[in-house]
Design goal:
Number of domains: 1
Radius of gyration: 26 Å
Largest sheet: 2 strands, antiparallel
Number of strands: 2
Oligomer: single chain
Number of helices: 11
Structural class: mainly alpha
Strand order of the largest sheet: 1-2
Strand content: under 5%
Order of helices and strands: HHHHHHHHHHEEH
């Protein structure tokens, strides 16, 4: 029941981070609708939205130095897209509950403890590495803000329209520290939502691996049953096993649409965030002549965090396609050729192989293919745009 434990734990973190109860078992995480919790969520997201609005206003109307304007633009774009990712999952809470139930139940009778432990280890590595990359970037933003304050300027991490650049009053300083705290909390909510998308893709990939090993195991089971005088029994067992495998395969194919409805927007918006924000950050790194080491590190680690998350999304989605493509061979070598008593087993294998030869390609909004190739295209496209703008600007 590791999948059950992983998803329930993640949904608990999402609940604590203000995302609501997304677990399919009522009363397991939240005890009904709580007015106090709803008030907590409203206040939390009102603060997120207000801070983002102040950043957007600062981009158009703020009077600030070029480095702070670049940070303001980067955060305004990033936080707008991050809020879009959050709300895309929260408004689909009912569908997320159904997805969680299916991720727990499909293929659960054939999941092996060793493979589940491997699945859990990979999920933990992916999520922890992503969280570390995000907070490493945050640490250098914080360090640079403290450095500026120690050198006679003002403390700054999040650049907003107010407080104004010249305002060093106690209220302005307090607000700047408050926005830093809001950023740290907002990252927790963001990491929880992104982690849910990562976990969904990894679990989906392991469902196909479970099905593949189940189908490969049918051959060994058939050979053991197909001893003298037991060919008919072996054939019946093979037929029943193939039918069960086909049902699981059909359920997994339908599950791809559920994942697209629940986290497809998260995946698509991350492509936009990684490409758009990376161009702005790389230009800031290339064109600024007086950046400190901490300022350079905060930009570099921000870009690393953006592309690391995109790689987790697209590579895991590409792995789903690869694992699904292996099913046709597993079905073909199940031992059907040794069945002489039932010809319908051969027809069943024929139809199953034909269906498995159309492997799933994960898409966002049924348009953007989520594959290894897409990741390479995004990286190349981002660098091309950066190189073009840099060449025009540096002339």
């Amino acid at each position: 029941m590791k999948n059950y434990f992983i998803l329930k734990t993640l949904c608990t973190y999402i609940y604590l981070a203000g995302g609501g109860d997304m677990w399919f078992e009522e009363g397991e995480i939240s005890k009904g609708k709580s007015l106090l919790y709803q008030l907590y969520c409203c206040i939390l997201f009102s603060i997120y939205i207000s801070m983002t609005v102040l950043e957007i206003i600062g981009v158009f109307f703020g009077d600030m130095p070029s480095d702070e304007r670049s940070d303001c633009t980067t955060f305004a774009v990033s936080h707008t897209i991050v809020l879009g990712k959050m709300f895309s999952v929260i408004v689909n809470r009912k569908r997320v509950k159904e997805l969680n139930k299916k991720l727990v139940e499909i293929c659960k009778d054939h999941e092996e403890e060793q493979r589940l432990a491997q699945n859990y280890r990979i999920i933990r590595i992916n999520v922890v590495a992503y969280a570390v990359s995000v907070y490493s970037s945050f640490f250098f933003f914080l360090f640079e803000g403290i450095r500026k304050m120690m050198t006679g300027s003002h403390f700054i991490t999040i650049v907003t329209y107010w407080p104004f650049y010249e305002d060093n009053s106690a209220i302005a300083v307090s607000f700047r520290f408050f926005t830093t705290l809001v950023l740290a909390v907002m990252m927790v909510t963001m990491i929880c939502i992104d982690s849910y998308a990562i976990v969904s893709l990894i679990m989906y990939k392991y469902k196909f691996m479970t099905l593949r090993y189940y189908l490969e195991g049918l051959r060994g089971q058939f050979d053991r049953n197909n001893c003298a005088g037991n060919e008919e029994y072996a054939t019946e067992q093979l037929h029943a096993g193939l039918v069960e495998g086909i049902v699981m395969h059909s359920n997994l194919i339908r599950l791809s649409k559920d994942i697209d409805r629940c986290v497809g927007a998260v995946l698509a918006l991350q492509v936009c965030l990684s490409s758009g924000s990376a161009v702005s950050l790389l230009l800031q790194l290339a064109l600024s002549k007086d950046l400190t080491l901490a300022a350079q590190m905060k930009i570099i680690l921000f870009v690393v965090a953006l592309y690391f998350l995109l790689a987790l999304f697209l590579c895991n989605a590409g792995e789903i396609t690869y694992q699904a493509s292996l099913l046709s061979d597993s079905i073909f070598y199940c031992g059907w050729h040794a069945c002489t008593t039932r010809r319908d087993v051969r027809r069943l294998v024929l139809f199953s192989v034909a269906a498995a030869q159309r492997p799933i390609v994960m898409k966002a909004f049924n348009m953007l293919q989520l594959t290894y190739g897409t990741f390479i295209q995004v990286v190349r496209g981002t660098y091309s745009v950066f190189a073009l703008i840099y060449a025009q600007t540096s002339q």
